[in-house]
Amino acid sequence: MRFPALRTSGLSRETFVSVVVVGCVLLFALPIVLALWPSQQPAELPNGTTMDYSRAELSDVDLADCEAAWTDSDSFCGEATAHLDDGTAHTIGITREGWVAGLEDGDKVVIQTATPVQGEVLHSFHSVERGTSLAIFAAITFVLVALSVGGKGLRAFVSLLVSALFIWVFLVTGVHEGGNALVYSTVTAVLVLTVVLHFTHGFGAKTLAAWAGTVCGVGAAMLAGWIFSSVARLTGITESTSAAVFATGDVDIAVLALAALLIALIGILNDITVAQASVVFSLLGFQGEDSHDHGHRGSGGHEGGAAAKSPSLMKRALDVGQDHAASAIYTVSFSVVGASLAAFVAAKSYGMPVWALMQSETVAHTIVQLLAGIVGLTVTMPATTLFAIWFARVLRGSPEEECVRGGAGGHAQHHF
């Protein structure tokens, strides 16, 4: 199967097909986004209590009780006077977190104000004011990315910021307002994956192969996660979701856990697909970002063509992909263990044996998500390899064919 050359439009075959695919996805997804767009109503707890957050400066900080004895993390053990930006002052309660942060007079903080339907308004410490420092850290990181990775790195950084904003405004708000978590997460994943991949890496056969491979991997992981969770009878109610159960009782926490897995897998599997697509195109003889190996390498000039026609191409690509997938498996595993280290230490403090710890809701839920992610990895790598080989041959042809087309009508520019 071959697509005709698009000389009149000025687009290469692969760019045209990639643009069409992205256009079809957006044409399908955007009306759904508009239909599901949340109302952005102010947050309110089921009991009618509304929450507001303000910046303030502290004075008269007293944390003596926090030092005297162990207290629950949600209980007040100190107090201070908070001077808000609007000129008002309130006495606020401070949890043990404030003592650990070393709060003292003059510190800038964020306070939380709970206004119940009936009863007294409660002001409490929420967090240290970190907006300025986080902005500085982000700016430093942005500069480092620009110097080290270049244009693609900057586009990836911008994609990260835009995706985070969309996830907050659309996904998080939609689920909070009672929307189906899996529906919102699926729409979010499709849009974010499609836009981020093509915005960062450009329109082309390699990007298309990475996109298709990631979709296959995420689908396989979601199916595995659903089966594993059902068989293990996981509820999804862990230490990290208990607050969500209290705050939004109409949210299906088990479905929310699967939705979280879907979003988490986008970045993990995308790493595999982008690298594997590049490997396949390199083995086929396409080299460089905006250039191709056209066989002008002396006696070895047709190595790329031979690779394209060799029946061992799939095996060669899988050999490299298996190394990458294997490293990704233990990378993900170690990251999960690191994120759960505090829970492990707490379990040890309560004298919990390993066999009981592994069967607890929190740890079992983490294990299931990890195993589902590994299933996704095992599908993603070969699927991306097949897509990359097929798209390369159908949309680009061999490097020799590109050379002939380049000599007749100029070199097509491909971006990844």
Key phrases:
disordered N terminus; alpha+beta; 5 strands; 5-stranded antiparallel sheet; disordered C terminus; 416 residues
Q: Which helices and strands appear, and what pairs or packs with what?
A:
Elements: H1 13-36, E1 50-62, H2 64-68, E2 76-84, E3 89-95, H3 96-100, E4 108-115, E5 122-128, H4 131-148, H5 151-176, H6 181-201, H7 205-231, H8 242-247, H9 253-283, H10 303-309, H11 313-339, H12 341-349, H13 354-359, H14 361-396, H15 399-409
Antiparallel strand pairs: 1-2, 1-4, 2-3, 4-5
Helix pairs in contact: 1-6, 4-5, 5-6, 6-7, 6-9, 7-9, 7-14, 9-11, 9-14, 11-14
Instruction: Please outline the major beta sheet.
Output: 5 strands, antiparallel
Shape: globular
Strand order of the largest sheet: 3-2-1-4-5
Q: Uncertain segments of ≥5 residues (pLDDT<50)?
A: 1-9, 288-310, 400-416
Extended strand count: 5
Radius of gyration over C-alpha positions, nearest whole angstrom: 27 Å
Can you give the mean pLDDT? 76
| Class by alpha and beta content | alpha+beta
Note the gap between the termini: 23 Å
Helical residue percent band: 55-70%
Structure description:
With 416 residues, the chain is an alpha+beta fold. Helix content is 62%, strand content 11%. The protein is built from 15 helices and 5 strands. A 5-stranded antiparallel β-sheet has the order 3-2-1-4-5. A hairpin with a 4-residue loop joins β2 (76-84) and β3 (89-95).
